[in-house]
Write a structure and sequence with these properties.
The structure is a homodimer. The first copy, chain A, has seven helices and 20 strands. The longest helix of chain A is centred in the N-terminal third of the chain and has 19 residues. The first copy, chain A, folds into two domains: about 100 residues, Immunoglobulin-like, CATH 2.60.40; about 230 residues, Alpha/Beta hydrolase fold, catalytic domain (Rossmann fold), CATH 3.40.50. Chain A has about 375 residues and is α+β, with helices and mostly antiparallel strands. In chain A, a hairpin with a 4-residue loop joins strand 6 and strand 7. In chain A, the strands form four sheets. An eight-stranded mixed beta sheet of chain A has the order 13-14-16-15-17-18-19-20, sandwiched between helices. In chain A, strands 1-2-3-7-6 form a five-stranded antiparallel beta sheet, with no helix packed on it. In chain A, about 25% of the residues lie in helices and about 25% in strands. The first copy, chain A, is globular and about 65 Å long. At the A-B interface, strand 10 and strand 13 of A face strand 10 and strand 13 of B. Chains A, B: It holds the Pfam family Esterase. Chains A, B: This is Esterase. Chains A, B: InterPro entries: AB_hydrolase_fold, Esterase-like, Ig-like_fold, Ig_E-set, Mycobacterial_A85_antigen.
Chain lengths: ~375, ~375
């Protein structure tokens, strides 16, 4: 009996080792990714988070996928007798959305099986690894808001610039009610489509509102790489053009054309990554415009940044546990000590990717416009 | 002197022959297509309508473009020393928008240089050949309407189905004004994004309204291949699911959530190609729902189709001059003789493509909801 127990313990240890060294048995329960183009069977994902690719290119010499274990490296596909190329990631991927592309005989192409999403200053392929908490951004049978594509006059990006505006369920019915507004920015290489397409900001809000977890508000999303026409680095970033476009052009247009509560108490700004950097700059430059600030994987505020703590309704800082959560935790402690109303959130098991930001929005929304 | 004149005449004849046999000199005034991804230099188009492609694929053995002279055949690209593949169409293309894709070593991919547009039941590459009349769908410094993405409850495509709703400039400001509605359908293999993305329906309306050429109205666009889940042919097409989705699900939702004039006199239906077939079926099945009917490259009505001529405010029939304009002209004559208020339009120099339908919408809009 004791020997049996010992064998079980040894077996369990060997089992753990197998998993840790990447020898885990791959479950053959692959299903098409939810982001595939209509009718397309590949790419597929399994219940463990592995991704499997199939590309038709009979005369190619080499097909690679930029996506691999933990987002590093990539996956080399192998040619089958039917002229297709197949391959599976070496390990499970992080939960949530990932950008990727193919390299076919040295050329960069998108996977014809999937939908495209704007990232890295180009439309890239996207794949969705089912997450244990995917319910909060699922398309459910609840009342839905609308996402409006608007063209507003802009001297910065003119004659017209694009923005998307989420209006909550009921916005179009009760025409006397007015709403607060969250201005929500994408990251470097993305655009104004990112928060709805890959972020599901609209579905996150629809679901939170249906559950009574947040006050309904508008979300406005516009292009933030205003002075990055040549898609260069961030070193010489100048906030002026974007700040002008946002504060002097977009906000007045939104306040004139939507039923907003047009004061600083009912206006928030948030951004992910580079959008966080922009949020920090704009909120500190224009404290008279915004009262709620949120940086998602986008840096921190220090107590020295803030002139008048009592004037700020909320500071929200977040990132993934695979980023640098200590930085967020330390900044939060410092801000708390200085008297700020600060809330932080660490997304467990995720990195600098959209699952972190979807979860951050879900945590942020209920905190906004509470008083 | 006579000899010189003879030489000139012969020269002119030889010149004409050269042009007619495809030896026309290609003007080297190529510019990036307006549908390229941000920062991408290729594909390019010149002032004559030629298209030039450049694809990076150093190790590929063969790269072809599905687009060629008059849409037939295709263009074979040739490898350059720098590892790129280049080629120019054999002749000028028709004005306007064209779908295309690449074949790289036997595999189907999109051109990484261009934006994607949903057609042929997949997201395809798109290119824009500048048209002499492109001003009517240009983005101008005029007041702009909005395109709303809505999710409406649907038992046919449920739990939620997508539609896009164009609301004209001013819709969001004067909250007492109500508007007529045009339900506008895409063609086979396309979806609810086609009329805004490749059709520029919103810009066509913005420009017509700014010039005072049309009454403002709403345009609603939803997915019409409701019973084509397997993307099969049209032979066994059953209109029932789409008609239910449109008439019993979408129209009531739009009338409840937008400021419409919710009666048949202020409701029109139009569609291109397969969408025209659907328009014909639905309008004849539901004369109590629509009063204005339009088929764009989508067939004809005969006097026998119509039970009560006096009940129909407008029948509009159109197609490109490179389609079968005689069929439209004959049907128009027959309908006129039977007493119908029928208007027809032939788009000069275009085939079964979006330039025909952009122009058709421009001609149709001013005729709608006149009385």
């Amino acid at each position: 009996m004791k020997q049996l127990q010992l064998l079980l313990v040894i077996g369990a240890i060997i089992g753990s080792f197998s998993i840790a060294s990447g020898q885990e048995t791959i479950k053959e329960d692959f299903k098409p990714s939810t982001l595939n183009q209509p009718g397309q069977k590949y790419p597929q994902v399994n219940s463990q988070g592995y991704a499997r690719f199939r590309i038709i290119a009979p005369a190619a010499d080499s097909v690679k996928v930029s996506l691999g274990l933990g987002g590093r490296g990539g996956t080399v596909l192998h040619k089958k007798e039917d002229g297709s190329w197949m391959g599976t990631t070496e390990g499970p991927m992080d939960e949530g959305f990932h950008y990727y592309h193919l390299t076919v005989d040295g050329g960069t192409f998108n996977d014809p099986g999937t939908l495209n999403f704007y990232g890295s200053t180009r439309w890239e392929s996207g794949i969705e690894i089912p997450a244990h908490d995917q319910d909060f951004y699922a398309l459910k049978d609840v009342p839905h808001g609308q996402v409006h594509k608007i063209l507003f006059p802009s001297k910065v990006s003119g004659p017209s610039a694009v923005a998307y505006v989420y209006t909550p369920p009921g916005y179009s019915k009760d025409q006397s009610k007015r709403y607060p507004v969250l201005y929500l920015q994408h990251g470097w290489g993305e655009d104004e489509t990112a928060w709805s397409n890959q972020g599901h900001a609209n579905l996150i809000m629809d679901n939170l509102i249906a559950e009574g977890k947040t006050e309904p508000f508008l979300i406005v999303m516009t292009y933030g790489m205003t002075n990055e026409i040549k898609f260069g680095g961030l070193r010489d970033f100048d906030i002026t053009p974007f700040q002008t476009k946002l504060v002097d052009e977009l906000i007045p247009y939104v306040d004139e054309n939507f039923r907003t509560i047009a004061d600083r108490e009912h206006r928030a700004m948030a951004g992910l990554s580079m959008g966080g950097m922009e949020t920090k700059m704009v909120t500190l430059n224009k404290p008279e415009t915004f009262s709620h600030y949120a940086l998602l994987s986008g840096g921190i505020y220090t107590p020295e940044d803030i002139k008048d703590q009592s004037d700020i309704k909320l500071i929200f800082l977040s990132c993934g546990s695979k980023e640098r959560p200590e930085s967020i935790k330390n900044a939060t402690a410092d801000l708390k000590e200085s008297g700020a109303n600060v809330v932080s959130y660490i997304s467990e098991g995720t990195a600098h990717e959209f699952q972190t930001w979807r979860r951050s929005l879900k945590e942020l929304a209920p905190l906004l416009f509470k008083n």
